Structures are given as C-alpha cells and as structure tokens.
Amino acid sequence: MDLNNAIIIKFGSIMIIKFWGVRGSIPTPLLPVEYENKIREILSLASAVDISDNNKVEAFISDLPSYLKTTYGGNTSCVTISSDQVSIILDAGSGLRLLGSDIENGKYTNITGDEYHMFLSHLHWDHINGLPFFIPLHKNNSKINFYSAHENCEDVLSEQQKQEFFPVSLESRPVDIEFHQLTEENEIKLKDLKIQTKKLGHPNDSYAFKITDSNNKSIVYSTDGEYDHTSKMDTYIAFYKDSEILIFDWQYSPEDIGTKKGFGHSSYKIGIDIAVSSQVKKIALFHHNHDYNDKVIDQNFENAKKYLRDKYPESKLEIILANENSDINI
Questions:
Q1: Cα–Cα distance, 82 to 107 (Å, whole number)
Q2: How far apart, in whole angstroms, are the C-alpha atoms of residue 298 and residue 41?
Q3: Which CATH number fits domain 3-30+71-329: 3.60.15.10, 1.20.1250.20, 1.10.1760.20, 3.10.350.10?
Q4: Neighbour tally for 273: CB within 10 Å
Q5: For the residues 233-242, what does the mean pLDDT come to?
C-alpha cells in the first residue's frame, strides 16, 4: 500500500474489502484448454482491428468482453476487511494461501503486527482448506484467533491436519492459537469494528457476519445460505438492512437452483430480491459455482443486471461481481 492510500485510510475512515478466493465448493483452476480458447478468441477479434501501437492495444483490451480480460479465480472463499485499526479474515478457503504469501512478502500491509482474527462462516472443507498453507500458522511469533459459532471448530481444524491428511498437525505448529465461541446473541468488538452473527440455512449450518465500523457503516458477509418458504425472511432482511454492501452466495443460476434443493446455496434472483428489500447499497455476487467457467459467470452476471432493471427499474442497487485479488473501498 502506498503512502497516499495509507493517509486516506487513516483519516478517511473507510473499510477495505479484498477478495482472495471467490469460488465455491472446490478450487477451480483455469484449464490449459480454456486458456488457449481465450487466446484464440482474442486473436480472432484482434484480426479485425488496428493494434499497431500501445494505445490502440490498450483500447482493444478495454473493449474485450470481461470473460476474456480476466479470470474470476480458482480459489475458494477468503475475504479480508480492513478498517483504520484492525483487519479481519473471513473464511479460510484456498485463497488464504495467497493472503499468507502476500503478508510474508510485505505486499499486504493492511494487517499489522502478528495477531490475526479469522471468522469462519462454517466448517465445510472449501472454507477451511487453506489453513494448513497459511504462512503465519507456522510462525512462532504469531497469534491466530479463530471465531466460530460451531462448537466443534477446534476439533475439525485439528482433524484436517491429522497425519493421514497433512504432514504436520495443527497442535505441532508454533503459533499461539485461541478459539472464540460465537452466538447470535453476542457480538465481538475488535478495535473500531463490531461483528454480529446470523445463522443461515445450510447443511450443518453456516453463519453470516455483519461488520460495523465506528461510523455505523456495515458490510455483510453472507455465504452458503439457502432461502425458501421456510426461511424467516424478515429476520434476514433486518440483519442485512441498510448495509453498504452485501457479499452474497449466488452459487446456482435460477435455472439450476431448482434441482439443488437442500444444497444450502442461492441465486442472483434471490440475492437481488433480498438486497432491494434490505435497502443495501451494493451486492457483491460471490461463491461462484465450480462448474461455471468465466464465460458462464459473465453471462449470469449480465442476466442479474437485467433482472434488476426489469423487476426493480427504480432501484439504485449496484451489482458487483466478486473477483479474486480485487478490492472495494467502503
């Protein structure tokens, strides 16, 4: 982070969201054939335009469809939220490895000191499988605080690092570890942030987190939740109400979700309906389906924007597509 940004953060009282992993269920790397197909399509488009100098090249790239300009990433859920005084980590999917590497190399300076605060929405493997590869876990001058509403959190994290699954046990790591039990009734205060918890409909339960700063601005992280006629929708709307941004699980398209009842996930239609009812300012579509390639994700994103325009033409809701290594200032 450069000095100018640091000054803005210190005096501007903003929160910074950074996405380290945005996929759901299992890491999904870009296949070589998918990469080659992108190159072929880009070359085909380039053959019809003038790219004889750098300015024209940049203009050409700018006009490319989003799915050709980027890849939405292959790592599973991991997000950081940084305020003026503290950073928290939301979930420990495979994206956590990238965060740890950037901390080690001095590229990510929002986390200061050697104490980490990690909030786990739930304990399914795609939300914890990055932990063994998180460099601070292996540092004897570090402390990691785990916050979870699951009473068996310590046992599950220990289990995944048993010798049958991983070379070194959690208990053998030199890091200082402390576990904190969350409930829907209590809230956690960390410096200038307040964190509240809300149970979602998901196999074995998942929990949303509402993070509120000293200016009463809120970010809601709500992944792995299923909403149906049995959901107490009013309680979710109240929890999400007036947030600056709702990070929302849209794993299935509206066409696919009908066959996935009980899987514990949602769609962009449900997310937009909830966001409009909750009067949130932005919704970040997150937890991309592992079976959807970049082009499919892009098309679903366009469908989501069309759904908002058609159903809520007066709405000022902004829809964002979460992308690995991207950040948002609130």
A1: 15
A2: 16
A3: 3.60.15.10
A4: 18
A5: 95
